[in-house]
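Sample intake sheet
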Amino acid sequence: MSKEKKRTGPKLDKSSLKNLYGRIFKHKKALLGGIIALVGVDGLQLLVPQIFRKLIDSLAQGTADSSLVWKMGFSIVGIALGMAFFRFFWRIFIVGASHRLERDLRAEFYSHLQKLPAQYYDKTKVGDIMAHATNDINAVRMAAGMATIASFDAIFMSIASIIMLMLIDWKLTLITMIPLPFITLLVLKFGGMLHDRFSAVQKAFSGLTEKIQESLSGIRVIKAYGDEESEKKLLAEKASECVHENIRLTRIWGFMQPFVMGLAMMSSSILLMVGGRAVIGGSISLGQYVAFSSYLAMLTWPMMAIGWVVNLLQRGAASMGRLDSIMNTIPAIVDGPVQGQPLPSIEVRNLSYTYPDTDVEVLKDISFSIPASSTLGIVGRTGSGKTTLVELLMRLYDPPAGTVFIDGVDVRERTMSKVRGLFGYVPQETFLFALSIADNISFGNQSIPIETVKHLAELAEIGTEIENFNEGYETMVGERGVTLSGGQKQRIAIARALAVAPSILILDDSLSAIDTETESAILSKLKKEISGLTNILIAHRISTVQHADLIIVLDDGKLVEQGTHLDLLEKDGFYTELYRMQQLEEEVEKQCEGGDC
């Protein structure tokens, strides 16, 4: 076995570094302006040692007078003002360009996330995505901004300083520069380790972010179970892991930076010993020694900057690679060639479906059809595939080819916008945004007037309750609608689905938190006031679907019965059993209300 210890972390992907630079050079005008301004700063900085050289030599020779001192002093002030002027503009150009790059990258990242199908989010942690959207994009910005300008500054100042040193004394230059190449070797040695450890830092940060997001989202459950201490312990473990990885990164950076400083100080020591003797021997003047020392200090900065630049570029490249891994993910669901607006008739032919990367067959040989403007009821036990079926109809997941048809055309052949534009969907888990009630209702169609918003609320049997709130339709619902009851959230979600004027309305167990009387009123209004609407009702209560034109019964992913309410009762099968059980439950509830329990 080889004695050489192999790196276990991810290697720096050259394509990620190339992509990083490609994004930087998209802002080449700002980059060029910043570089020109930086040359102005560095050029003026190179004049300062020459002014001190002339003044010190004049003082040493006794030829200086007060006018020369004033002249030199004003020259330094003028140079400082000029440097401030140019420094302001290089920061405006370079830092501004890096923030625009960050803005564009964030928009591109978010846009791509919206294109990815539901199954991507089934297997990707929210914390990872949040880390990409914050930490990684910030690291790319730093690499595009400060690292880019510092790298050019280091190159320009290195070349310029060496030229000025050689003009003073080329032999002394070669001797004092002996320790400096070791700085570059040191940086190259530790660069790969910095990349690996920063990747580990990013991974730990993702885990911490995921845990915090999960804990905050489930804070009410945590409090209900009195599980605060356990959650604090788990969060502390994630935080400790994050600290541990950051310390490992800091060890490398903390070792490299002082080492670089030490090598730079060795150059100063050599100058003190060899240069001092040269001044005593008269081969160089005192002013030349001071100027030489200043230029050597200027050369030391680029050598130290190399480590900082490499660190930023390693971080930026690692982050760019992580972002690329997402943005290079090809969406599993793509548009078909058919663009026409379809009629909302649905046919399912021998549909079987297994979730990607699993062996669990969720649906098994399902077949049914419903014409436009009709109502489909779907009932079945929990986990029987009801929600999966409607998600396949909407192409949130892609069904197998030749299994799902809308208006006689395979949904995979239609553009996603045309298919999804037909649907208004109210899922099982009602999600409201931290906006006003009016904004939540008009979320999918923000151009609708407030009068329409109020009408939709009336259709959803929530209008009167909203009017009774202190701020009416401007009432803020809080995060995820926390200030509302379950039934209120469901009805607002129904109004929101109606706001997009759908051709097909899907209520996925969305009336479960509503009493049967309100439920009946909502369904009656939808049928009377919205002509041509196709309804798909998923429910556990038979009362929700009993007036549907077609009811399908699912059990363990199989379609075991279908027909109208009366047809299914006559079959005396699973549907009838479910109906009788619910009838019995209702009778027991009535008896309990009468005090006969």
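Comment: The longest helix spans residues 228-281. The chain has three domains: 14-327, 333-422+502-597, 432-494.
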